[in-house]
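Researcher: Next entry in the queue.
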Amino acid sequence: MGELVLRGPVAEIVSKGAVTAEDVLALRRGVFRDGVVSRTEADALFAVDNSCRERAPEWDVFFIEAIGDYLVGQEPPVGYVSEDNARWLVDAISRDGVVCSRTELELLMRVMEKAQSMPAWLSAFALQQVAHVVTDGDGPLARGRQARPGVVTVDDVAMLRRILYAFGGDGQAGITREEAEVLFDINDRTVEAENDPAWSDLFVKAIGFSLMAATRHVAVDRDVALRRQEWLDDTSVDVAGFFSRVVAGGLRGYIDAVKTKTGVENAYREKNERFAAANAAAETICENEADWIAARIGRDGVLHENEKALLRFIKAESPDVHPSLVPLIDRVA
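Model: Structure for this entry, 333 residues:
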């Protein structure tokens, strides 16, 4: 990759090591009046962000907006984050797997929230940023944090939920194995801590649905993504009603929602029916899932409270559990 050459106002801002509100306004009206339209322009904004310790509040707003729009909305289909762009973003905002600043962490979150499709590993990477602060006190979330490392706070749970909901924008009814592994890692490192009660609820339900929902995520191709955009633009589709049924009913709500005779079927019916069928089949805990959960639970030889709660949840919600998991469930029955 060639060396980045900065010109004009961008070069001047980098050379002085500070970006003012006036600088941001000039960038909006001048160099970036049409937004960020190329990787070179995006790299130039990162050069400003990395070089300027003194910055007006307007900079963070502009930076997050400009890079987010570039990654998610510059080329059709709108809402698609490619593998290449995801790798570029992670390389730009992190060092050794840890995001460098709160601004860049917020950029990651905005990209995930705006995107309709992205690589599954990107959500796990975002969850790892919470894991870093919870377990080791590292990363941008550690600045100003009151709790000591090893404790899950209500703010940690809120960030975890935000990440999981962001990736769920592509119709994920459950969470991916990559996401579940990060949640288990957090739980393993905080089993004896005075965690916020919301952590137990999130852990149990997220892991439980990861086992019972069809979570094999494949980034959509251009044709499928474009058809999704047609559905969102179709005024005959009750998008709000569709998602309200999902939120109200959880996994079952999703299955019911996709079966409802609405305008959604114009663009999305076949995929939704396949997904609903896959979810119904996935409510059964199969051998592979049972082996994974059995290996993760009780690694230290002790069944801790969140793990017991998870097993009780599986027993209550799954109609059929693989025999290899039954002995663990019987221990908490």
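Model: The two ends are 59 Å apart (CA to CA).
Researcher: Noted, moving on.
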